[in-house]
């Protein structure tokens, strides 16, 4: 096994994803191990870890597997060494800009939810502080 390849356990540790989750992302085609060992074990590279980290970061923002796939396909295409026609390149960039805008909106929505949750917790703390101890 090459030092640049990692088995799934190391990938799970580095990405803080479970083995089951990584296998699920493989089954759905979001990430494909770069190689297999002679014994058939999945082998991953730094690029595979980077891909898993994109997925991990999209998940709490509520992106679907199909949306994750669409973003990854767009970035893969832009990152390829192939010369893209200008209109295709612009379409891919526009798709990524859409994901950027959606992510920013979802982050803002989560900040609003967190603020409301903190207000609620503070209200409970004040209420409990007013109750005399027995």
TrEMBL record:
Q: Specify the domain of life of the species encoding this protein.
A: Bacteria
Does the entry feature the keyword DNA-binding, yes or no?
A: yes
Q: Which Gene3D superfamilies match?
A: 1.10.1660.10
Q: Which InterPro entries match?
A: DNA-bd_dom_put_sf, MerR-type_HTH_dom, MerR_fam
Coiled-coil annotated spans: none
HTH merR-type domain span:
5-74
Does DNA-binding show up as a keyword for this record? Answer: yes
Membrane-spanning residues where?
Answer: none
The name on file for this protein is MerR family transcriptional regulator
Its ancestry begins with: Bacteria, Bacillati, Actinomycetota, Actinomycetes, Kitasatosporales
